[in-house]
Amino acid sequence: MARDDAPPLACLDANIFLAVLIPHATKAPKDEIVASARVLKAVEEGRLRGVSTAILFGEIRYAYLREDQPGFEIARAAIEAEPNLRVLAITAPLAVHAAELRRKYYSKKNAFAYNDGLYLATGLAERADFLITTDPHLLNVSELNAIPPSRYR
After folding, report:
1. Rounded Cα distance, 55 and 115, in Å
2. Are the beta carbons of 15 and 56 closer than 8 angstroms?
3. Nearest to 42 by CA among 119, 132, 120, 135
4. Domains, in order of start, for the chain
5. Distance from C-alpha of 149 to C-alpha of 16, rounded to nearest angstrom
6. pLDDT value for 4
7. How far is CA 58 from CA 3, 75, 115, in A?
8. What is the mean pLDDT of each run of 10 residues along the chain (153 residues)?
9. Which strand (E) or helix (H) includes residue 52?
10. Which of 106, 132, 129, 107 minimizes the C-alpha distance to 117?
11. What angle do CA 24, 141, 137 make, to 5 degrees?
12. Distance separating alpha carbons of residues 15 and 152, to the nearest angstrom
């Protein structure tokens, strides 16, 4: 539930940013790429508050390096300057909770990554209203309502 009349709080996975920053590098379908841009626009306009974890920058940097693309520092600066987005440091309790979540969800059939656990742990720690992701591993969690960007209205 959103607090008072504040806009809802969404935990944002790195793939939401990557879909906009380097769309050709994502596995997300085109409609989810378009919807990711809509989600980030909602954050920019203050209709949605965002929260993420500092691993976001590592995942984005890796994608820029993997794709041999310039512009990471500009993307990082824009994300850090966004007033409606908080990026949390990875604290010991957050890291431990992420590991517990990975243990719960990981299997040979479900490659739930440690990074996935960090996003989920961040959303839970911040009492997010939902988590927005294109990652199928995160879309099936039970602790927090996880939705693809196309379901954000």
Report:
1. 7
2. no
3. 132
4. 9-151 (3.40.50.1010)
5. 8
6. 67
7. 30, 12, 10
8. 78 97 91 97 98 97 97 97 98 98 95 96 98 94 97 94
9. strand 49-53
10. 106
11. 30
12. 15
DSSP-derived secondary structure letter, 130: E
* Complete edge-to-edge strand list for the sheet that includes strand 130-132: 85-88, 49-53, 9-12, 130-132, 146-147
What are the residues whose beta carbons fall under 8 Å from the beta carbon of 148, sequence distance 6 or more?
Answer: 32, 35, 132, 133, 134, 139
Helices 114-125 & 55-66 angle (0-180, nearest 10)? 140
Residue 67 has what DSSP assignment?
Answer: T
Q: Which residues pair with 85 in a beta bridge?
A: 50
Q: Kindly report the number of other CB atoms within 10 A of residue 89's CB atom.
A: 7
pLDDT at 1: 47
Three-state DSSP class for 135?
A: coil
CA distance 37 to 126: 23
Structure tokens at 15: 């793939």
C-alpha–C-alpha distance, residues 39 and 106, integer Å: 28
**Rounded Cα–Cα distance for residues 67 and 90 (Å):** 26
